[in-house]
């Protein structure tokens, strides 16, 4: 799986956002020495992790098949990207100006 696909799911964004808000609240509680606020913030942060996992189990997370390989849609994108890079490398080796500069010359 390519790095650009890592973490870009509803489950991940939701879990991280809720946890971040919880840690901000906990930090405020720690600085203000308000122990109840600190504990509430930590509970919210933990809830973010649980909610993220629940969303992932509900199908909103990264998709894997039974063998642990990535989603076939992601594999197709990776293959297309590799093929484009191979074509560009071949054109560069052949000295094609468009491939060397990255733009077409008219």
Number of helices, counting only DSSP H or I runs of 4 residues or more: 4
Low-confidence stretches: none
Spell out the helices and strands N to C.
HHHH
Helical content (DSSP H or I, runs of 4+):
over 70%
Radius of gyration: 23 Å
Query: Structural class, from helix and strand content?
Result: mainly alpha
* Straight-line N-to-C gap: 37 Å
Estimate the mean pLDDT confidence: 77
**Largest sheet, described in full?**
none
The overall strand count is 0
Describe the SSE topology.
Elements: H1 10-31, H2 35-60, H3 72-94, H4 97-101
Helix pairs in contact: 1-2
Structure write-up:
The protein is mainly α and about 110 residues long. The chain has two domains: about 60 residues; about 30 residues. Helices cover about 70% and strands about 0% of the residues. It has four helices and no strands. Helix 1 packs antiparallel against helix 2. The longest helix has 26 residues. The two termini are about 35 Å apart. About 5% of the residues are buried. The model has no long low-confidence stretch (mean pLDDT about 75).
Key traits:
mainly alpha; single chain; 4 helices; 106 residues; 72% helix
Write a concise synopsis of the structure shown.
The chain has four helices and no strands.
């Amino acid at each position: 799986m390519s790095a650009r696909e890592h973490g870009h799911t509803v489950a991940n964004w939701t879990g991280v956002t809720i946890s971040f808000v919880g840690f901000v609240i906990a930090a405020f509680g720690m600085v203000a020495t308000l122990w109840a606020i600190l504990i509430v913030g930590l509970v919210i942060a933990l809830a973010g992790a649980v909610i993220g996992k629940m969303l992932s189990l509900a199908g909103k997370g990264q998709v894997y098949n039974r063998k642990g390989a990535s989603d076939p849609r992601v594999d197709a994108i990776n293959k297309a990207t590799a093929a484009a890079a191979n074509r560009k490398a071949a054109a560069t080796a052949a000295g094609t100006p468009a491939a060397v500069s990255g733009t077409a010359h008219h």
